[in-house]
Design a protein that fits this description.
This protein is mostly helical. The chain has 6 helices and no strands. Helix 1 runs parallel beside helix 3, helix 2 packs parallel to helix 4 and helix 2 packs across helix 5.
């Protein structure tokens, strides 16, 4: 039941991210799937968070025009990296998770820019800040949703 709810959350989040520009008429899309990747990596147990991060990368690869598989690789690498450092950061705090997301979005965009040869540092910083601001509210809502569905958050 828990895995089904989490995969459904990923699908809804992918739909929101892919249609953000259509409904809000902006040129910058917040990285909602990356927010989920960081949240799952820091607060869920290993096999499930790894599968969800790879699934988020797959969803983004399916609907993006970049190299297929690049988002899967970057999201799973972020999962592995965050699993290694999760005991060294104060991950229960929403602001700390937001800062990890801010830095992660910048690094992720720079990695993707190497392969696409199409990037602007200004847009990357704006997108990272935009994602950071929205991540604070999204992480709060995700924690409430986890409490509602009785999904255990692993702080160990």
């Amino acid at each position: 039941m828990r895995a089904i709810v989490l995969f459904f959350i990923c699908l809804i989040t992918a739909f929101i991210q892919l249609n953000w520009n259509y409904y809000f008429n902006t040129n910058i899309t917040p990285q909602f799937l990356f927010i989920l990747c960081v949240f799952f990596s820091l607060l869920l147990k290993d096999p499930l968070s790894f599968m969800l991060s790879a699934f988020n990368g797959l969803l983004l690869d399916i609907f993006s025009s970049g190299l297929f598989g690049l988002n899967i690789i970057t999201y799973t690498l972020w999962n592995i990296f965050l699993k290694r450092i999760k005991f060294k950061v104060y991950r229960e705090q929403i602001f700390t998770q937001g800062l990890i997301i801010f830095i992660g979005v910048i690094i992720n965009f720079l990695i993707l820019a190497v392969f696409s040869h199409n990037f602007s540092i200004r847009l990357i910083i704006i997108a990272a800040f935009y994602t950071f601001l929205l991540s604070l509210a999204i992480i709060y809502l995700l924690k409430k949703l986890f409490n509602y569905f009785k999904i255990k958050i692993s702080y160990r």
